[in-house]
Amino acid sequence: MSKRIDIDLLDSGGDSVYVSERKVYPRDVSGRFDRLRKLAVFWLLGMYYLFPWLNWDGRQAVLFDLPARKFHVFGLTFWPQDFSLLALLLMILAFTLFFTTALAGRLWCGYACPQTVWTECFLWMERWTEGDRAKRMKLDAGPWNREKILRKGGKHLLWLLFALWTGFTFVGFFTPIASLGARLLPFDWNGWELFWVLFYSLATWGNAGILREQVCKYMCPYARFQSAMFDRDTLIIAYDPMRGEPRGPRKKGLASVLERARGLLDVRTAYDYVFRASKHPSAAASRLQAAGTVMLDGTDAAPLPKFQTEELGDCIDCTMCVQVCPVGIDIRNGLQYECIACGACIDACDDVMDKMGMPHGLIRYTTQHALDGNSGRVLRPRIFVYGFLLTALVGAWTWGVFNRSPLIADVLRDRNALYQQQGDRTANGYTLKLVNKTDADRSYRVRIESADAASLVLKDAPLDVRVPAGEVVSQAVEVGAPATLRGRHALVFVIEADDGSAKARVDSTFFGPM
Ligand code: SF4
Ligand code: SF4
User: Fold this and answer.
1) Of 211, 229, 247, which marks where a domain is finished?
2) Over the chain (514 residues), what is each successive 10-residue block's mean pLDDT?
3) Could you tell me the residue range of the domain that residue 43 belongs to?
4) Are 391 and 99 in contact, with CB atoms under 8 Å apart?
5) Which end of the chain is more exposed for a tag (fewer CB within 10 A), N or C?
6) Is 478 exposed, middle or buried (0-12, 13-18, 19+ CB in 10 A)?
7) Which of 332, 342, 347, 365 most suits a substitution to test ligand 2, by most atoms within 8 Å of the C-beta?
């Protein structure tokens, strides 16, 4: 008979690092910032879905032709040799991000990030099929019935079609989109085209439909390092606790603290109320389970006392700002890294203030200095440094793009032999590589210049090389000299377009017997 062994079960105490994410059901909101975000969505996604279909000079306006190693962008063609311009462009994008973040906070996250704009579209489709916040929560909590299957099925069908269109457009930036579309029926895509359409569709569906705010919270590196660009003069979206606290419901009719004797609280008292409210949330706030990086976690705090109506601040604790938040945080707890600065809580709170007959701005764009009543300045040294570097980089890039030579020339010496003895002559072999970056065929005349011009002679001079538009041509050339010419001699290959539109000089060397 097996012997029973007594064991002690250890309770982990609930400290697992794997916590399942609470689903966020953002409520629909309308207002100034919502209109701005919709405008950004239409503008940015409009460019994304439209650009590959535009034509410029008889070619797709934006086409990253990887097999031909050429990027076509509205009449400009970038070659691998223009890599320095691409590097400069990436630096410009990085400094634009630094500059706008230091000046105006997370503008990029709230209005322009692909994750934000696609999530916004997926949310619209979710609302069309499942309804607004309360209906979606009820639907999720309810059993699987005909209505739930139809609504969820409809949502995923819309998401799938939109995601596939997104993936198709993405591939259309790398392969001519008209041909990609024409080869859909009958299906004639190659393996890579199919893979990238499906991969990008899946990524869009997963990121914008399922993961949403988790991408910003856990996957996006920018959300993590941007705090390095923040200071107390950076524009943030913040709740004004001096005006709003102590929060609490009341009947309509009580004027704003800005218009009655109570006035604004002092900073210390206001933040004490915020802290205690975050530790002992109201029943309404508890139901919402607003998450986020609540400050001073783990510290004990006494609950707030019951305040007389006259003592209350302007926040009526309606939790609308939490219900509309796409990342599910309570902005009243202070600046949190999860906040993507979308402005939805401003719109929601302004709407509530309108209904209560109070002025807008309980939640607003401000700086931490301004909020705390300290003097601050927008134009700080870092703004000037970022601004100067950005201007210099944009200037250099613009100059570089419009002053690129339409001809690239390279000369490679024959690697097999330093020189060849041909009777009373010595010959050196070279390979001339010419890249015609223009959209027209060109003829180039090749000659050499040297201090030993009397001795060094280009074979078959004057040499004309024809290079088709946008092509690379390799041409073998030979330079000869009398056998009496010894040692190393510098020479320059001069290549000129026959219409004088381009000229290149390439340094090289001639070797005779040592
Ligand atoms: S929406 Fe405004 S009034 Fe309502 S809880 Fe938020 S801050 Fe307070
Ligand atoms: S707290 Fe939420 S709703 Fe308000 S700006 Fe931040 S992310 Fe948007």
Assistant:
1) 229
2) 62 60 90 96 97 93 91 88 88 91 89 95 97 94 95 97 98 96 93 97 96 90 81 92 94 90 92 89 69 58 87 94 93 90 97 96 94 84 92 95 89 88 91 90 92 82 89 92 90 91 92 87
3) 32-229
4) no
5) N
6) middle
7) 342
